[in-house]
User: Fold these one by one.
Assistant:
Number 1:
Amino acid sequence: MIRNQESDGSWRGRWGICYIYGTWAALTALKAAGYPSDFTPVRKGIQFLKKIQRHDGGWGESCQSDIQQKFVPLHVSTPSQTAWAVDALSVCKETGDLLNRGVDYLLKKSFDMEERTYPTGAGLPGGFYIRYHSYEVIWPLLALSHYKKLQIQQ
């Protein structure tokens, strides 16, 4: 897994829309395996997520990432992608304004009933994408629970 880390610190996911999801999966796996947050690949993954945070506090990635095989930002943040980033940062014990802004985005945007149509998963890269309707609730709940656990530990 470490050898598959991209030069920008991300990992390419094979199921969710791509680099935010892949980086979340890799970081949470490395932490579960006992690697410390100052381990170079973990630190690089954290820096990647910090670098791509949007001005509204959330994260968003275009399906074009899947086609171009590099991170391509989306013009809006999405609850599932924001949740993956917040969860990874929480599991890595990152704190501060950046994480808090991500949590604020989740609390404001994840649980409203606004219609969302942007895909959340890759069916066939460049072919079709899937929108899992529960993702804007399930992943934020997981991320917020890990954030709350981090707050209690401090």
Number 2:
Amino acid sequence: MDVNRLLLILVFFSNLILGFFVYLKDRKNPINISFSILTTCISLWIFSIYMLLTVWGNAKNVLLWGRIAFVTGTFMSGSFAIFSTVFRHEKFQPGKLCIYLLILFSIIFVIISIFPSSIKQVVFEESKMTPYYGITIYIWMLYPGFCWLLIFYNLRYKWQKGNGIEKLRIQYMFFGIVQ
């Protein structure tokens, strides 16, 4: 096994363990629940990238794991948007409707991402892979873009309304994102 795949497995398990311990810290806290879901989605996305590297050279399997990477990436974007919505300053309570809509849109865009018209085919030429995308991939790209706008909006809003320690938490989260 090469170093890249070994590191991916290490990061995969690190994220799973981190999410599990945060969840165990307070199982009823929406922040802990959403963070553990986020780390699980990140882990699954990392695993799909690991599998892409493992099946490299087999166009059919690369196409399958490429679609799975889009599925897990879609859930990762949605779960991060939910985490940013739930991540609160003390006076902010997000509506359940917002969270349910994010879940619904994640499911809709997962379905879009697995259409054959999203990733039509994968061609290997001279040890170089070339994916051919269809029209629905451009529709799919709207969702992660929307999620990132929502994440930054939530952080900005909560930073403006927060007090000293809350602002510091949000700044750490913001700098963790942009790093």
